[in-house]
Amino acid sequence: MLNPERLPCILHGTVKSTPRTGVVSAGSQMRLFSGKVLLLTVSLFALAACGDAPGGAPQAKEILRGAQAEDADFAVVPVTRATLPQLSKWPQSSSQPVSGWLEKSSGPASQIIQAGDMLDLSIWDNGESSLLAQKGQKAVELRSIRVSSAGDVFLPYVDQVYVAKMTPDAARETIQKRFAEISTTAQVQLNHQPGRESSVDLISGVSKPGNFPLPDRNVSVLSLIALGGGVEAHLTNPQVRLMRGSKLYGISLDRLLKSPALDTTLRGGDKVYVESDERYFLSLGAASKEAQIPFPDDQVTALDAASLIGGFADNRANPKGVLVLRNYDGSDVRSDGTGPSKERTIFSFDLTSADGLFSAGEFQIANKDLVLVTESSVVQNGTVISVMYDALGIGLRARSLRN
């Protein structure tokens, strides 16, 4: 058996042998050197078999080691045509703090008076003994009358008049009827200026954010974004967010544009903003690009992910050992097959087969998944051979110097 302590001596050709008398022939010297080379080759391959050669990425067997043990804290699931139907029933992991989205509900093309709105009144009265207008004056102007939190306004001679939740035309008729009680010839003109409760805020993600009054009750999210100058071009897979009360709703701009029925009608007090998709997955191992990759679309399959990372390193990657590592919530774990059996789950792909490629094109990548391209075992053997040739080169140079 090879003594490791003598390996450096073999490399440098300094192994001592039993002294011999006489001159050693050139053939004997060559046979001695060939024996050293053979011994070196066997030794290096023995070392490769006993341990792992240095590499840039792990092998699949290293990652999956111990998966079959009873106390394994992770599960391995091959992704094939046979397993895809079951996997489609598993809970979809999501860290998005949104409550779905609201469908469009058309409203009348008129405004509604809300608390905080401002009213301007012009009261015309041609009566000879009018209480409202002075002699020779045909109209009285009442400006900037704020609607109270209770929904009413105070007007001279008629006291409180409730106008909240009325259209401007309905409020004008109500006020005119109240003034007609003291002057039958009185006529009212009303101008409505929406306040905070009759406007919406477009916060960010557009060219011109700001506060926008609602001209009617039929203003949609896309109409508001258009008023704000459109979505900023640098956003990745833009996501539209709607804050209404204590809830946050969300949808992608792409889906909103393709589904007119989802172009939600806004209410006074709504807040809208547009942001980049916050989801991402990680790429590591023998991939062409190791990085944090943002989601460019609503859905990214494993095959999409392979393309987004620039494919695999041709001289290193093992296409039979592409892994997707995912962390599930404890509440997602199931024992009946309708969910993962472990919180930590590894999905494995063989991209050298048609079934593996088609299945990868149907498997959805989740937020914060790790796509790991394992390294081929051939790479380690290549590393060993490279070391062997380096050693041979050192030996040949040393022998040349001695001669």
TrEMBL record:
Pfam families: Poly_export. Gene3D superfamilies: Outer membrane lipoprotein wza domain like, wza like domain. InterPro entries: Poly_export, Poly_export_N. GO terms for molecular function: polysaccharide transmembrane transporter activity. Keywords: Signal. Residues 110-189 form the Polysaccharide export protein N-terminal domain. Transmembrane segments: none annotated. This is Polysaccharide biosynthesis protein. It comes from Gemmobacter lanyuensis.
